[in-house]
Amino acid sequence: MSAGLRNYSFEDYVTEANQARDVDTLFSIFLKTVAQHGLDRAIFSLSTDHHDIGQEADFGIVHNYPESWLKYYSSNNLKYIDPVMLYGATQIDTFSWDDIPKRILLSRKQKLCLDMGDEAGLRNGVCTPLRGPQNQLAGIALATTERKDAFDGNVDMVNAYCNHFYIAYKRILRRKTQEQEQEQNIVLTDKEREVLKWAALGKTDTEIGLILNMSKNTVDSHMRKVFRKLEANNRVLAVVKAITLGLVHL
């Protein structure tokens, strides 16, 4: 490790990460930072849909895992049995992969999944679950290529880096949706936003009218204007587009 990286503090990381304008740059900064702790492999995934930034659940959004392992992982649908993902969904803090067999009963296939990850060069693994609003769940798994004495064990710093990465990632995606909104020049009135918000929460036109003190016909009129502006032919599509573009926040 260079002297520069030895003196690279959490504040330095935050400053540099906040200047990233795209996800790849952010991930490169993150990799450089966790490498200080001996972790040279990382993968970031969304376990649930993140409608507020227009992203669906996806495994390995950014990573530097071995491609051969990811190909095998995907072709065998290991995400459905992966003990790291399943256990991570129940946790709030960074945990070691080695702790999983001590805390939950694993099937033969799940034990094999961990063993094969080790053989693929993913050792001394840790995972940080990441939680957002509306029950959003994401996670970052990190590992070392070296088998022994690579990770320094500083899980508190790893937890801090991972949580900031998640915040910065969402900020970048949100900025993109706002830029798209400006490019498309889509502007909803306050009433249109209110109507659409309640529609997103499953309210009928009659219920929305009672909540907002307007007639059912007025609600319908607002919805039709929203459809035209968003080029949507139904309220589900209109809601998804509006949330993706940051026009409506639930």
TrEMBL record:
Source domain of life: Bacteria
Protein name: LuxR family transcriptional regulator
GO biological process, one term: regulation of DNA-templated transcription
GO MF entry, a single one: DNA binding
Domain spans labelled HTH luxR-type: 181-246
Organism per entry: Micavibrio aeruginosavorus
Keyword set, alphabetical order: DNA-binding, Transcription, Transcription regulation
UniProt-listed Gene3D superfamilies: Transcription factor LuxR-like, autoinducer-binding domain, Winged helix-like DNA-binding domain superfamily/Winged helix DNA-binding domain
SUPFAM superfamilies associated with the record: C-terminal effector domain of the bipartite response regulators, Pheromone-binding domain of LuxR-like quorum-sensing transcription factors
PANTHER family tied to this protein: DNA-BINDING TRANSCRIPTIONAL ACTIVATOR DEVR_DOSR
